[in-house]
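Regression test case RT-17, inverse folding.

Input:
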């Protein structure tokens, strides 16, 4: 079992690990990166809700082999970026 070695809070304009995107590109307000001793990262991106609390909109993992994991699927970095941007648009806009 991997242990957390560092937690990094991301601002709206910081780059998300494994992408060229920042939380603002996804209409979000910030993020958090959890670094583990096995070399993996967990990333959560949130918006601030009406009560002023963070509400997670997206989360993904990057394993020690640089596989990007969203749910149970693995993606390349470019595919993950496209997927995150696609989830940002309402279903009516997607084609």
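Golden output:
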């Amino acid at each position: 079992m991997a242990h957390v070695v560092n937690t990094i809070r991301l601002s709206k304009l910081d780059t998300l690990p494994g992408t060229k995107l920042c939380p603002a590109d996804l209409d979000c307000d910030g993020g958090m990166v959890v670094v583990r001793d096995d070399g993996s990262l967990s990333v959560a991106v949130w918006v601030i809700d009406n009560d002023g609390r963070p509400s997670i909109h997206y989360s993904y993992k990057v394993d020690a082999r640089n596989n990007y994991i969203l749910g149970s699927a693995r993606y390349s970095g470019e595919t993950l970026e496209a997927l995150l941007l696609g989830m940002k648009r309402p279903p009516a806009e997607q084609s």
